[in-house]
Amino acid sequence: MNTIFTPELKGKLSDSGVIAVITIEDAAQAVPLAKVLIDEGITAMELTLRTEAALDALDAITKDVPAMNAGVGTVLQAFQLDEIIKRKASFAVAPGCNPNVIKGAIERDFPFGPGIGSASEIETAVELGCRVLKLFPAEALGGVSYLKSLNAPYSFLDLNFIPLGGLNTENMASWLERPEVLAIGGSWIAPKDMINNRDWTGIAANAREAARIVREVRG
């Protein structure tokens, strides 16, 4: 068994190109936010488990905005998988490579992408059954050239990466051009202060520009 991202799910994430990384403090903001992102062409998001509102926000989005591929981030313990599966999350990721969480995802047959930053972490994740990996913090580690070099010995495995950390409209195109990049993670699209201020117009503009770059690079 492995932590399978089905071809259908991978296709959806690839089509979106950008996974909006969201930290939400008021679950009432979740549905309006998801609708804004969908309307502007961003159809995938990662709700970070850093606030008490995160699970309620996930619940609201999966019920009221089913077109959104709502994933969950900052999954640090295996038991958290039960709650996000219950709320019908599409996938989960983490900043690090925790074997216990990977094994928990395998036991639950749930798509999980651990965070990696080194060859050893790639090998740990692959040995446990992962083929979709989150590269974090992507820019601080060395950017696109680092991913290219890091993945070179493993290219025959057809691994997919979701880089996150330091990405924005200025550099996202260079990441999206890489064949091993499934999608990029972007927290700049809907930062916490804009969500708290309900700046849907500003968020829409950010999402629109990100979606435009995806179309320009990927067609």
Report on this model:
- With 219 residues, the protein is α/β, with parallel strands linked by helices.
- The chain has one domain: Aldolase class I (TIM Barrel), CATH 3.20.20.70.
- The protein has helices spanning 7-16, 30-39, 54-64, 80-86, 99-107, 119-128, 138-141, 143-151, 172-176, 192-196, 200-218, and strands at 18-22, 44-48, 69-73, 92-93, 112-113, 115-116, 132-135, 160-163, 184-186.
- Strand 6, helix 6 and strand 7 form a beta-alpha-beta unit.
Produce the secondary structure layout.
Layout: H1 7-16, E1 18-22, H2 30-39, E2 44-48, H3 54-64, E3 69-73, H4 80-86, E4 92-93, H5 99-107, E5 112-113, E6 115-116, H6 119-128, E7 132-135, H7 138-141, H8 143-151, E8 160-163, H9 172-176, E9 184-186, H10 192-196, H11 200-218
Parallel strand pairs: 1-2, 1-9, 2-3, 4-5, 6-7, 7-8
